[in-house]
Amino acid sequence: MDSNTFLQEVQLQASLFEPITLAEMDGVKLMDRMDVKYLIPLALLPDILREAQPSYKVLEIDQNRLCNYRTLYYDTDDLSLYKAHQNGVLNRYKVRARNYVESSLSFFEVKYKNNKGRTKKTRIKQPEITDFLENESVDFLKQTTQEILPETLKGILWVNYQRLTLVSKVGAERLTIDLNLTFEFDEQQKVYAAIVIAEVKQEKVGQSPFIDLMRKYRLKQGGISKYCFGIISLYQQIKQNKFKKHLRRVSKILAHHDHLTTTNLTTSY
Hints:
The protein is 25% helix and 35% strand.
């Protein structure tokens, strides 16, 4: 089975979830949260979704459940924000502009991860995505942090993907499941059709049917952010020691992609 066949199976399973609207999701925005990431082989995702259906609803926008996202990440010429992640800096930032294609909305966003492992996201609407920060984004960044000089930032990586968003039926928990990851910049492009990045977002790490499913399928907690993954994919000489174990897992998933069947779905990743 190729990636398109698995993707069709994912869409079929997504169609069977009870829907939730953007307005109904207001109570689970989780802008201040704990995150847990997983790398998942695309071939496993249909079965995982099938088992997750009793516990979650799926976001639906204009009859779309697999929604398109376009994101431009900003960094300095020497990639100082990436290097903060690579060097294990505990209080660190990501700066990006994101377009939610189906809802025709764009935001300028600042993500801050503190030394307690909590992620806080703040954002403002903006009319379009630009290579350099516009006035409102500059002012917003200055209000958000004094640690980053807006004039040093420029767009250095496009990250595009399709996303399923699941919302717990019983608790303050939201899941994002990102497929068809595509990284682009300056005529370079890298596509990871066989890799899925899932993220569990909670006010505090607690019981989760999805995390239980990850244990059942022997999928290990921990993953690489899409931003760092993209930088490593397109900037070949960049230091990446911190992410070696995640990259080994990516390589293993890719190597097994053509061989995953119902007889070996319990392979550990």
